[in-house]
Amino acid sequence: MSGEGQRAARALRSIVIVGGGTAAWMAAAALAKVMASASCALTLIEPRADGTAGAAEGSIPNLRAFHRLLDIDERELLRATRASFKLATRFHDWRARGDSFLHPFGSYGLDVRHEVFQAYWLARKQAGSASRLEEWSVTGLAAALGRFGARPASDSSPLRHLSYAYHFDAALYARFLRIYAEKRGVHRIEGEVTDVTLDPMGRIESLRLSEGRSVSGDFFIDCSGAEARLIGQALEIGYEDWSHWLPCDRLVAIDCESAEDPAPITESRARESGWQWRIPLQGRTGHGHVYCSAYLSDDEAATAVPGGAPGTLRCEPRLQRFKAGRRASPWVRNCLALGEAAGFLEPLEWTGSHLVQTGLGRLFALFPDRDFEPAIGAEYNRLAALEYERLRDFLILHYAASQRDDAPLWRHCRAMPLPPTLAHKRDLFARTGRIVTLEEETFSPASWLAIYVGLGVWEGRHEPVIDLLGSPAMASRLEAMPATIRKAVETLPAHATYLKEVATLA
Amino acid sequence: MTGSAVRRIVIVGGGSAGWMAAAALSALVGRRVEEIVLVESAEIGTIGVGEATLPTLRAFNATLGIDEIELIRRTQATFKLGIEFRGWNPHRTFFHGFSDFGPDMRGVSPHQLWLKARTTGDDESYAGYSIATVAAGLGRFAPPVPDRGSVLGSYSYAFQFDASSYAAYLRAFAEARGVKRIEGRIVDVRLRSHDGFVEAVLLQGERTVSGDLFIDCSGFAALLIERALHAGFDDWSRWLPCDRALALPCARLGAPTPFTSSIAHRAGWQWRIPLQHRTGNGHVFCSSYLDEDEAARTLLANLDGAALGAPRLLKFTAGQRREIWKHNCVALGLASGFLEPLESTSIHLVESGIGRLIELFPDRGFEPKLAQEYNRLMSRSYESIRDFIILHYHASGREGPLWDHCRNMAVPDGLHHQIELFKAGGVVVLYDSGAFAEPSWVSLYFGLGIFPRRHDPMADLIGDAALRRELERRARIVAGAAQSLPMHGAFIDKHCRAAA
User: Fold this and answer.
1) Would you say residue A441 has pLDDT above 60?
2) Would you state the pLDDT for residue A506?
């Protein structure tokens, strides 16, 4: 037998996905698309629907690459998921009560290296003559003005720097991907996993379901959420607890009808014992309250979420308990965990779907055969650990750099020792205005800058070094940018107008 | 403004590292910095042997606004498309070229496509997809076209030049922009008593040169960073035991090759770097396994043309300064560490050292976090290059005491993981700040005979016939494109021949 034949004979013949949320259907849809020409059966085991309403969710721009991979039409997506465009998050009361700042997607400046822009802006700020950061961001200014539209075909328009993601209804998004995946041959089974059978090597052999049937497979993807039915319960892989850095452990969410024009912004408002979100969809607004149960009861948390006004209550508030952290090894033998089974980070920067997407990207780059080389899984786990830690640090920064001290949660966060990676980053920025970029960062230096500046981390002491980085000509170019940006952004239609045009609901 | 900007920069040492730093920082003179001074001694020779570089040097030169053609003429430079490795794999010569092996196909890397399509016993045909490799093999060269989508725009190149002429060229450049050169031999370094920062260097003849920021380019002597500041040294000779080099130019016979050669010997290896006017040679070896006389005989027996002079001996220890930036002193070049020139990385390390100094440029407060970040970044670069070089020795199929030692030694964990991943599934693991990208690692793995146990299963989703057709098409295009280039020597004669 030739080497070639041997290799092909080791290919995966079947993949079983456990779970029915966004993570599961993202995995199913992506596998159905990428593996279209493979003779590999795709099965998804989904618990019986419990009628939970969807919850509005944010995302980050990279999700559009996922949709491109799947050839998803944006208009269809917007229609099917009540989506709106998202250009930024606005943080209220985080630095201090009454303060607010914007974290836009995309870059600052026009065709200028981030380091150069940053040195320039910090020098201006030091001199007391810097206007707000978002004036230098096409995406940020569009967000602030509530505008959005199609990006121009022209290579020279400042609007080509527009970056965006979506707000959508997560349940509708999962359903949208379900239709996509089922159309492409994913076999859906409704049922609960009651038992997991391992082979002598500790690999998952088959799953027994509630109605007695058994499902076997070569490779299993655990998207069962916090329950971690396979990776946690069956394979007993531990969970790294980060709640000492991210003490919030509950959220309550509710969506309301709304006749308001949706803004292209997620609102995030810091509260005494956590924070609240407000996400505009088409015809609805999602509200949620993330909080720390040590400082706030569930009832108190629920009353803090605006009930009827300005929209009408659609259903009972949904309560979720969680623990910040990550699965120690999300890939073990023939089982990969995605979504909340692989880790949980509160939705402060709306990276839930992004982490599923990058997990799938790593899976495709490190695709296994039936030998399940341990080195391959080890590389996946190495990269996943780095990615989660980077993101963890970014979220911790929001709490740790806040200047609030009006409640126990904030006092705890100001006093807690930081992970060394974050302490190094924060201190370097605070003292010198430089940004550290480590491996597997989700957020760009522009995003870190927005949060650092927004929270007032920079001490403004270090002599900025713009003249080493950019030419004198660069300084005058930078000078002119806010006006150029404003002129371009003002040609855009209102976000709500554009959204109506591309996604009119039937 | 806080008024705490660095006013005076003192660069100690005038080799290529010193003058590269002076040239790059010269834009500051009269703007932010009052004065930049470079202290060098004509008595102390520099290590300026014929030197090969990486393509990144062109970006460095471009930032300075240096005219490439003029530079080539002044430094007797030739063009470099990569490195030929002879004797490292006993079964065949292989090439590490400055180009990839073609584009991905449906997200699958080109080396994985080749792995799937290759027939039993074929360990070499992958090289036919690398335009730099094929062109180098034909002795052909022209600069790439601007269109990155075309195969003739998909490669890169570097220079092989006389490093002391490069330093001289940059000296003129820096002096014209106000850098002040002081001739003198440093006899002592004065530290500030309260914090141990460098205050001044004392020159022979009781002259004192003081400054805010000191850049130590004093080579192996490491006058400031080590002798005065005791920054410490991480010794890597357990992984890289070679500790001597004999350098010797010779007359060139025939046309210059558009590549550097690295020829493995009994207890080391020999470089061959063709310049316009001669060929640079050197024998890097391990003194535990080979004495200097025999090393010299080996070198002399393996020259293309007549030796020009007698071999010059260099002694070194592979490793890195523990704190490359300490207090108000930043080390560049050999003062910051040493890695043998197997992959032509020493000037590259100077470039990245300067680039990061600019990104993290201090003020007179010398915030320690800046040094910490600088050292973190430089260590990552050093370690990634170290590991890449270790791979050459560790995976070589040669026999003999040095080679057996290297094959059996425990390599650094990061490299071990990289090799395991490639063996398992052809996965190329790259770490942050690595100088070498995926095609470079693939060139070495394949070249040294490391072939994965399986290819990427995603490659199996591409039909066999379609894949074979595509690979044949690519090889044809690469061969035709390489053939269309002029001969390297003819290109130089036409465009950038040095004055006689």
Assistant:
1) yes
2) 44
Predicted pLDDT at A313: 59
ipTM comes to 0.94
* Rounded alpha-carbon distances, angstroms, from residue B416 to A375, A438, B184, B279: 11, 22, 47, 36
pLDDT score recorded for residue A155: 78
Nearest CA to B164 among B112, B122, B219? B219
Interface test with B, best of A2, A35, A462, A469 (most B CBs within 10 A): A462
Tell me, rounded to whole angstroms, the distance of Cα A469 from its chain centroid.
33
The three state secondary structure string of A34-89 is: HCCCCCCEEEEEECCCCCCCCCEEECCCCHHHHHHHCCCCHHHHHHHHCCEEECEE
Residue A136's nearest CA partner among A165, A164, A166, A114 is: A114
Residue A309 confidence (pLDDT) above 60: no
In whole numbers, what is the pLDDT of chain A averaged over residues?
Answer: 93
Q: Give the domain ranges of chain B.
A: 8-63+161-237+318-384, 98-159+385-488
Domains of chain A: 3-244+323-496 (3.50.50.60)
Options 3.50.50.60, 3.40.640.10, 3.40.50.720, 3.20.20.140; which CATH number does B8-63+161-237+318-384 get?
Answer: 3.50.50.60
CA nearest to A58, candidates A90, A21, A83 = A83
| Percentage, residues of chain A above pLDDT 90 | 82
Distance CA A25, CA A30 (A): 8
* CA of B431 vs chain A CAs: smallest distance (Å): 8
Is residue B1 pLDDT above 50, yes or no?
A: no
pLDDT for residue A318: 87
User: Is the predicted pLDDT of residue A308 greater than 50, yes or no?
Assistant: no
**What contacts 24+ positions apart, CB below 8 Å, involve A355-361?**
A355/A387, A355/A388, A355/A391, A356/A22, A356/A23, A356/A26, A356/A27, A357/A26, A357/A62, A357/A63, A357/A65, A357/A66, A358/A62, A358/A387, A358/A442, A359/A330, A359/A384, A360/A26, A360/A27, A360/A30, A360/A31, A360/A66
- Residues in A closer than 8 angstroms to B461, CB to CB, are 34-38
Distance from CA of B490 to the nearest CA of A (A): 38
Q: Which residues contact A219 (CB under 8 A, 6 or more apart)?
A: A12, A14, A15, A16, A334, A335, A336, A368
What are phi and psi for residue A21, nearest 5 degrees?
A: -90, -165
Taking the CA of residue B486 and the nearest CA in chain A, the distance in Å comes to 35
Of A34, A431, A438, the CB nearest to B369: A431
The rounded mean pLDDT for chain B is 95
- The pLDDT of residue B46: 56
Q: Across residues A171-182, what is the average pLDDT? A: 97
Band (A4; pLDDT cuts 50, 70, 90): very low
In B, minimum Cα distance to A36 occurs at B461
Q: How many CB atoms lie within 10 A of CB B369?
A: 21
Among A1, A7, A383, the residue to mutate for chain B (most B Cβ within 10 A): A7
